Amino acid sequence: xxxxQLYETIYKRKSIRKFDMTPLxxxxxxxxxxxxxxxxxxxxxxxxxxxxxxxxxxxxxxxxKAPHYICIYSEKTEGFLTNAGFxxxxxxxxxxxxxxxxxxxxxxxxxxxxxxxxxxxxxVIMIAFGKTTEPLYRSNVSEFKRKNLTEITNLTDCKELxxxxxxxxxxxxxxxxxxxxxxxxxxxxxxxxxxxxxxxFNKMNQIDIGIALCHLWLSLEYHGLxxxxxxxxxxxxxxxxxMTTIHVSESR
Length: 252
Ligand SMILES: Cc1cc2nc3c(=O)[nH]c(=O)nc-3n(C[C@H](O)[C@H](O)[C@H](O)COP(=O)(O)O)c2cc1C
What we know:
With 252 residues, this protein is α+β, with helices and mostly antiparallel strands. Helix content is 29%, strand content 25%.
């Protein structure tokens, strides 16, 4: 699976919530696990682990049942939620590109004998995956329910580069990202939350930013550009909180 294939999947993927409960073949699961070992983190210093569970090992308030779940456990350090979103979105795209259904589950928890802490890390979030009989893909970007590009950026010369960010999935489809700066120095911020919304969305929106950064990275790479992610705390538009700066250079 190449990053170009993941990039192309951005334009058609969708969340799948109805699964065929037949477990995937062992060989398919092995390929998935091998792929997990290859994905790129946003911050290599943050210790993470992936754990694969079945439907008896999780509890979810919503009636979404799948044969498999991939969970990410992470060290709880600066940027860990964004890093988790960046990592697992690569798996979401991988599932879709391999004709499997998947859905991020922000409300689900590990259950029963499965510990929510392991090796100094804590459970962060999971994605349900498996075969589906539902249509896997959107046939046109107009089928994505998303904000317009002008609502998520003030950059006027980056339409193609930023379209994958616009199409990124987010918890409750909140789309909290905003892109400013310039084509060479992209600044990513997220919508500030008020005291009522913060308990509901603070965690999820940081994961959402990681998802958007994954799409932006794939887009930059697809267009022959190399991103260098940095945390520089520069000014962002009013109503947004700074997340990341991306220094963009031509790939050699
Ligand atoms: C961090 C995160 C958490 C999510 N949690 C849930 C969830 O608990 N239940 C659910 O049905 N969908 C969940 N979703 C899926 C979103 O509702 C979905 O991505 C969004 O509405 C956009 O739709 P699309 O993925 O089909 O493009 C979650 C998505 C993200 C990114």
